[in-house]
Design brief:
Number of domains: 2
Largest sheet: 7 strands, parallel
Strand content: 5-15%
Shape: globular
Number of helices: 17
Strand order of the largest sheet: 3-2-1-4-5-6-7
Order of helices and strands: HEHEHEHEHEHHEHEEHEHEHEHEHEHHHH
Number of strands: 13
Helix content: 40-55%
CATH topology of the largest domain: Rossmann fold
CATH architecture of the largest domain: 3-Layer(aba) Sandwich
């Protein structure tokens, strides 16, 4: 009888304690799960995004690219982008830390070590700044440097009539030599890169197109399909032939057609050339000075019926993407980046044959394209613009990001350049093994995934 009673008491106590511990365990689990400090303890890989262009400091399309890259990797589970601003030429505005949280600023050479002390990989957007790249590679020889070539300065020099601003292309070549990867933003760029002999450098070259986020998927912001006026928007440099539209309209004797040229810079030396054109074609040419004012830019779009993307060298073509996004009829050169962007939809845009050496032939070729365009009904222009816009799907960040992820997976165990620190002496056997590994690595696809070690681990 006592044994039965004791057994019953034991069972009751066991059940009570079991229920208690189960309840407490559940509470502890919930607390642990909801504690921010216990979430995602895996440390992210730090990408140092090196640049000397960030709005409001703008010299061209680089600043747009940098902002798009930051946005593309925002809230990524694996990577953290840290903008690093080189303030040698332009001082960083006082509000930079508020506008770009986590930004690091290099005011002098001594700041480099602090800026890159915990960076796993550098994505470099500097065109030259040789001493900076060399210093980074010397101080952090095991950190891969991926240099993004937004434009080949040598091509700029050859197509901009030997401009004083592009005669330093040899400095960009040194940047390539101190990089581990060079990203070209179109297939045409890679061809030029190899033609110049840059493919002989140790850096591995790869094509990754610029990312572009369409803004008007569900908005219709253009409806000038019955208007014949033309526009050119962008930098006014020789390689872009910004005067091609007005010269062609004049040769075709289309007196009722106006041309709007936006982006003329009168600050550098007064720009005598464009002042003469403005006077020469004052009845048909309206010049809009360079500005970041969105209202002025909207005025431009409100007055044109088609945009002319001319030129004899264009690495990618943000303007092409912007016009396609807005559903503006696009008259475009059949070279380089613009050709690659519009290749899939070329029957819905208005391509003209480019003659890189003869402006008069360019005028004749554009005339033929414009004759075809002006025979196109407003309804067909609108329909074509809608179809042409579909090519933008290939440049959306979610697609371009996959290409960058492939590249980042290659940034470990590569033959980095620069000064090796604390390298122990190796036996002949070890050297032979390393030599065999290097030979095998040369046969690898550069997009083959590899391990990526985090500095903080």
């Amino acid at each position: 009888m006592d044994i039965t009673r004791d057994a019953s008491i034991f069972v009751i106590i066991f059940i009570v304690f079991s229920a208690y511990f189960k309840y407490k365990s559940k509470i502890i689990f919930e607390l642990f799960k909801n504690n921010p400090s216990t979430k995602n303890t895996t440390k992210k890989k730090k990408i140092g995004l090196l640049t000397n262009e960030l709005p409001p400091i703008i010299y061209g399309g680089v600043s747009t690219w940098v902002l798009n890259f930051i946005d593309m990797f925002k809230d990524d589970d694996e990577y953290e982008t840290i903008p690093i601003f080189l303030a040698y030429l332009d001082k960083a505005p006082e509000n930079f830390h508020d506008v770009y949280p986590g930004i690091r600023i290099i005011n002098k050479e001594e700041d480099i070590c602090h800026a890159f002390k915990d960076i796993d990989l550098c994505v470099n957007n500097l065109w030259i700044a040789l001493d900076t790249i060399k210093k980074i590679k010397e101080e952090f020889p095991q950190m891969p440097i991926v240099s993004v070539c937004h434009s080949l300065i040598k091509m700029e020099h050859l197509t901009n009539l030997g401009s004083q601003y592009t005669n330093n292309f040899s400095q960009q070549e040194v940047t390539f030599q101190n990089s581990d990867f060079v990203v070209l933003i179109s297939k045409a760029e890679k061809e030029y890169y190899e033609e110049f002999g840059y493919g002989d450098f140790e850096a591995k070259s790869v094509v990754i197109y610029n990312m572009y986020t369409p803004k008007y998927d569900d908005q219709f912001v253009f409806d000038n399909y019955n208007i014949d006026h033309l526009g050119y928007i962008g930098r006014h440099v020789p390689r872009k032939r910004p005067e091609l539209a007005i010269e062609t309209i004049r040769q075709m004797a289309l007196d009722n057609v106006k041309v709007f040229n936006m982006g003329v810079d009168f600050n550098k030396g007064g720009n005598v050339y464009w002042k003469k054109l403005q006077e020469k074609y004052k009845d048909q040419l309206e010049i809009i000075e360079f500005t970041c004012d969105k209202k002025v830019k909207q005025y431009y779009y409100d007055n044109i019926g088609a945009n002319v993307c001319s030129g004899i060298y264009e690495p990618f073509g943000y303007t092409v993407c912007e016009c396609l996004d807005r559903r503006i009829p696009l008259i475009v050169s059949n070279i380089d980046g613009p050709k690659e962007i519009t290749e899939k939809v070329k029957e819905f845009v208005y391509q003209y044959e480019v003659d890189k050496t003869d402006m008069s032939n360019d005028i004749s070729n554009l005339s033929a394209t414009l004759e075809s365009f002006y025979k196109t009904s407003p309804e067909k222009r609108k329909e074509n613009a809608e179809q042409a816009r579909k090519t933008l799907d290939d440049y959306r960040p979610q697609k371009i990001k996959k290409e960058w992820m492939k590249l980042f997976n290659c940034c470990s165990n590569i033959g980095v350049k620069g000064i090796k620190k604390n390298v122990d002496k190796k036996s002949d056997e070890e050297k032979n093994e390393e030599s065999d590994e290097e030979k095998n690595e040369e046969k690898e696809n550069i997009f083959e995934p590899r391990n990526f070690k985090i500095k903080s681990e």
